[in-house]
Write a structure and sequence with these properties.
single chain; alpha/beta; Rossmann fold; eight-stranded mixed β-sheet; 37% helix; 24% strand
Length: 259
Amino acid sequence: MSVVHTIKWKEEDLVLSIDYPKKHTSSNGYKTVIICHGLIGSRVGVDRLFVKASKALTERGYLVVRFDYKGCGESSGEYGKNTFEDLINQTKTVIDYTAENVAMEELILLGHSLGGAVAVFTAIEDQRVNRLIQWAAVGCPDTDIKGIFGESRMAALEKNEQVDFYGYSFYHCYFQSLSDYRPLSKCSSFKGDVFIAHGTKDDDISVHYLQKYKENYLTRKKGNVSTLLIENGEHTFSDSNHFNQLINGTIQWLENGAK
C-alpha cells in the first residue's frame, strides 16, 4: 500500500509517498528507508529506479518513504533556487514528518547521485539516522554538478541571472552553495554503518568515488562500510541485470550487515 502526502517546508509543498510493507511482524516499529533523489530527479526515479527499489524493499518488510525535493516531481517551487543546505533541511523535514507519523525501529537514509551527498550531511547532522546507503554518490558537488552542466552553460550563467537545464531554471545561489560542501572529507563524521554501490560505466559521476568514500569511512573508530561495484553499471542502473545486482546487494547488506 502506498499513501501520498503533502507536507510544508517553509512556503513550499513537498510531496512524498509512504510505501508500506505487505507484512509487518515487529512490535518495535518499522525498519524505514527514506530515499533522497538527485539532480532534477523525483521520487519515481529515472526508469522508475526508486519505485522498483521500494517494491523490492517493502516485499522484505521495510517501509519506504520517497519524496520530491522543492521544484522536482510534484513538489512546488523552483529546484534551481535551492541551496545545498535547503536540500539537507528538506530531508530533515521529511524525517520529522516520518518520525511523527510512523513508528520506526530503525531509520536508514538512501541517497542516489547528488542525493547521496545530501544524505551524508543529513546523516551526520541528524542522529536519528542509523545507517546510510549511497548509490552512485556525488563526491565533489561543486565540480561534479558543474561538469554535468558543461562549460557552455556555466559560461552563460556568468552573464545571466539564470541558465536553463532540461527545462529547469538554475540560479547563482544553487552553484555557489555547492562549494561549501565536501562530503568526501566530512563523511567520516557519520558513526553508523554504510553501504556504497557504483557502476563501472557511470558517465555522470566517477566510479572512483566509491573507493575514496570507502577509504575515508575506514578511518573511523566506529561504523562499518561495505561496497558493491557493478560491472558495466551506468548511473541510474537502468539495465535489469544491473538493477537486480544493486537491489539484491543492498538488501543483503541491510539484512546481514557488513562483511
